[in-house]
Amino acid sequence: MVTGYNSNDKVFLAVDCIIFGFDGENLEVLLIQRDFEPEKGKWSLMGGFLKNNETLDDAAARILHNLTGVHDIYMEQLYSFSEVDRDPVARTISTSYYAIINIEKHNEELIENYNAKWFPLSEVPELIFDHNIMLNKAIRRLRRRTSISPIGFELLPEKFTMRQLQNLYEAILDKELDKRNFINKINSMDVLIKLKEKDMTSSTKGSFLFKFDKDKYDEKQTNSFYLKL
Amino acid sequence: MVTGYNSNDKVFLAVDCIIFGFDGENLEVLLIQRDFEPEKGKWSLMGGFLKNNETLDDAAARILHNLTGVHDIYMEQLYSFSEVDRDPVARTISTSYYAIINIEKHNEELIENYNAKWFPLSEVPELIFDHNIMLNKAIRRLRRRTSISPIGFELLPEKFTMRQLQNLYEAILDKELDKRNFINKINSMDVLIKLKEKDMTSSTKGSFLFKFDKDKYDEKQTNSFYLKL
DNA sequence: CCAAAAGTGTTTCCCTTACACCCATGA
DNA sequence: TCATGGGTGTAAGGGAAACACTTTTGG
User: Fold this and answer.
1) Residue ranges of the Nudix hydrolase domain (chains A, B) (predicted)?
2) How open is the CA angle B154-B156-B162, to the nearest 5 degrees?
3) Residue B225: pLDDT above 50?
């Protein structure tokens, strides 16, 4: 006997993607304006339905790519939302994913752009369904993650200044950090390579550029090297 | 126009519950022996299908209660598993939940017991589907949580000795802790009340019993008071 | 009187934090 | 020459970890 598999219990399973980006100044999130019902015209996360032949991870990647042109992003599963009436059209459970990406690097993909637009976190509009709740949960998770393992590789241009990295951390954590302590902390992580080049755009003196040491960075990532700020 | 809602995409959404308990010595997990196909006779987590009129949280509580008699447990959502072939009968996504409970307190419920049985973590058999993977993920999460906020209220009898509490932490973290440092740490959390009674079963001298100060405990819980061991 | 577990403080070390001044250069 | 951001080190304080001996009492 096989129990429990009753077709009446089948549901729609959606996937919604929360994509964070960093423009050098603010932490932003990618949203799209819906051009279909329900809630046509309102802003929302990138969402779609799980297909029968793909995993949730696959679906998240496909949906993000279809709606924004962005591809090759590692997204992490966040949470599954299941309020009975969260979607007014049909019973739909949604599993949310989030990722942080380098805005510049993906700008080209976004240019011919599908209705997608970056919003600073402080200017996010009211979103459809429970998407604001999803976004808030993603922000909290991102902050926690930032305190636990290094971040930035995905968010900064290949070469960046120490100030840019600090701006990133300050934007994510939403607090100011001491310049010297920050540098000491970052150096102690041993994931940066100091270049001989300087960026001359930000000051008369110019500031040295850095890049991530990808091998070391990945190692620290997976080992959840502890960074508290 | 309403796009995307195509009935072919509907899937079964299961919920699986990982219940940890502590017997004073070892960390254990509650499993049931399936009395139905597929995989009849094999051990598994407590699982069932999401119904149309309930949230995932509701479903987890209902399933746990139906299969084990245990009720009034706060479970936390862990992760949604979606490998295409994870369930050989039909495409099924499973959202897992986990909780830690006091074995003694729920023993009565378990006595007339449905096929449920406690297994020490080191003696967990091969489980159906991807349930071993779920369990491992839950253990990792439990360990991390234990390092971040106090734990024990749900797992120990109302009155307990300091040694029992230390045993609990050692079982969860799977490492030995220094007795004096442990006591200092716990005292600094200020969540215990020392009783005048002694437990005389464990030694000739006897050891003082403690209980949790529920108000303070809950406060620390929600504030994610930091405890590193 | 002895075995077995309970109980108890101090020191060291490292990480975190706070903090201020000089440097280089283009305008 | 001056305004602007870049770059640099140290001292104090607090939490974590290491560590050993005395107490109690039933058998």
Assistant:
1) 10-141
2) 130
3) no
B149 touches B220 (CB < 8 A): yes
- Overall number of domains in chain B: 2
**Residues B167 and B198 placed together within one structural domain of the fold:** yes
In a domain, B155, yes or no: no
Q: What is the DSSP letter of B18?
A: E
Residue B113 phi/psi, 5-degree rounding, is -95, 95
A196 touching B (Cβ < 8 Å) = no
pLDDT for residue B226: 47
Name the region of A61 (left: φ>0; alpha: ψ -120 to 50; beta: rest): alpha
Q: How is residue B75 written in tokens? A: 């479970």
- Between A13 and B38, the more confident residue is A13
- B164: CATH: 1.10.10.10
Bridge partners, B92 (sequence order) = B12
Please give the DSSP secondary-structure letter assigned to residue A2. Answer: B
In a domain, B132, yes or no: yes
For residues A217-222, average pLDDT:
76
Give φ, ψ of A167 to 5 degrees.
Answer: -55, -40
Distance from CA of B222 to the nearest CA of A (A): 14
Tell which of A88, A118, A147 closes a domain.
A147
Contact between the CB of B202 and strand D at under 7 Å: no
How confident is the model at residue A223, as a pLDDT? 56
Last residue of a domain, one of A114, A147, A180: A147
A183: containing domain: 160-222
Q: Are residues B137 and B192 in the same domain?
A: no
